[in-house]
Amino acid sequence: MYSLSTTPTEVSKALAERHKTLRKQLNLSQSEMAERSGVSLGSLKRFETTGKISLESLLKLAHLMSRLGDFENVFQLKEDQSGMESLFTSKD
Predict the structure, then answer these.
(1) Which residue from 18, 47, 68, 78 could staple onto 63, CB 3.0 to 4.6 Å apart?
(2) Three-class SS string for 78-91?
(3) Which of 69, 73, 53 is CA-nearest to residue 20?
(4) Tens digits of per-residue pLDDT, 1-49?
(5) What is the pLDDT of residue 4?
(6) What pLDDT is attached to residue 1?
(7) How many domains does the chain have?
(8) Does 1 reside within a domain?
(9) pLDDT digits (tens, 9 = 90+) for 51-77
(10) In angstroms, rounded to a whole number, what is the distance separating the alpha carbons of residues 40 and 47?
(11) Confidence label for 79 from pLDDT (cuts 50, 70 and 90)
(12) Which residues make Cβ contacts (< 8 Å) with residue 49, sequence separation at least 6?
């Protein structure tokens, strides 16, 4: 199937690559990251290789790297701005 938008697989692989880069910037080995985060080493290796990981484990890894706040906007409801238009239209 061809699509111009990104796929879930592409997003998960990109997340895994960014995670791996951040982990290395923090000078943490995979085993250190696993131990400190509470995520199994196997799960961490699978994530960095394939992008597959449970949400709970991903959040644990993000928390260890002080990036948990990055998830606060996921599924955030967008504000209804239809009323904003009335503020800028004149009633004259």
Answers:
(1) 68
(2) CCCCCCHHHHHCCC
(3) 53
(4) 566 788 999 999 999 999 999 999 999 999 999 999 999 999 999 999 9
(5) 77
(6) 58
(7) 1
(8) no
(9) 999 999 999 999 999 999 999 999 988
(10) 11
(11) confident
(12) 16
Residue listed under structure tokens 């504000």: 79
Q: Note whether residue 73 is domain-resident.
A: no
The length of the chain is 92
What's the domain range around 17?
8-64
> Do residues 10 and 41 touch, judged by C-beta distance below 8 A?
no
Look at residue 84 in the predicted model and tell me its pLDDT.
57
List C-alpha distances in Å: 18 to 5, 14, 30. Answer: 19, 6, 14
CB of 3 closer than 8 Å to CB of 41: no
Amino acid at 52: K
d(CA 19, CA 34): 13
With tokens 């080995």, the residue in question is 29
Instruction: Tell me which residue has tokens 């699978």.
Output: 46
Is there a domain that residue 43 lies in?
yes
